[in-house]
Write a structure and sequence with these properties.
The protein is an all-alpha fold and about 210 residues long. It has one domain. It is built from 10 helices and no strands. The longest helix is centred in the last third of the chain and has 23 residues. The chain is globular.
């Protein structure tokens, strides 16, 4: 799955460099379950609408997004919901493209594939931070976001705690591996961000009206 900066970069594209705080915090909402500590794949899958070990297809994501979107007229809630389900859609596209390419190209020991992924996408987070002109604005906007509970997936407290942890991690330069990614070059990932943004823009416009 892509890490936060990929989701933030998509959000930035969708909103022409100025995504709302509510969309931003929603865009990492499904991963807030990690604040519970050690969780199983099944538990994480619940917040991502995973069924039979697979992420939901586009129509399932759209159906759930529409249902939650209509629950409350407040625009902050609606932006949060759009961010939440945009995250799931981006995860689906990443799994089918970028990650699938990684699994095919990986030449190392299979026991180390997860570690290789973690190191490379960690580096990618910092490369995106440095390449995006509005990184500071995004992190500042994210910091002031209040978040929401989205039943039965995650609570507002979990979403905000996860947000705080991710900001802290991103602002700590010691977390940068200082490597050149082999499997996740920034050019390839940027193409993914641009393409996924195009797909999501059409979907989001149908509901939000001003994306």
């Amino acid at each position: 799955m892509p890490w936060p900066m990929v989701h933030f970069a998509i959000a930035s594209n969708l909103f022409e460099g100025e995504p709302s705080p509510d969309f931003l915090i929603g865009s990492i909402g499904p991963d807030a379950i990690h604040v519970r500590g050690e969780i199983s794949r099944e538990e994480k899958g619940t917040t991502h609408l995973v069924s039979n070990g697979k992420l939901p297809q586009k129509d399932v994501i759209l159906h759930n997004c529409k249902d939650y979107f209509s629950m409350w007229p407040d625009m902050k809630w609606k932006d949060f919901v759009l961010g939440y389900f945009s995250h799931i859609y981006a995860d689906l596209r990443w799994t089918d493209t970028i990650y699938a390419d990684f699994e095919r190209a990986y030449e190392g020991d299979q026991e180390h594939i997860r570690n290789t992924y973690t190191v490379e996408v960690s580096q990618l987070e910092f490369l995106l931070m440095k390449s995006m002109e509005n990184t500071e604005g995004i992190l500042t906007s994210l910091k002031i976001a209040k978040g929401f509970s989205i039943d039965p997936f995650v609570t507002r407290q979990e979403v905000e705690q996860y947000r705080n942890e991710k900001i802290s991690w991103l602002r700590d330069g010691q977390n940068e591996p200082n490597i050149t990614p082999i499997y996740f070059p920034i050019e390839k990932v940027q193409h993914f961000i641009d393409q996924t943004s195009i797909e999501l823009k059409e979907l989001c416009t149908n509901w939000r009206g001003r994306v």
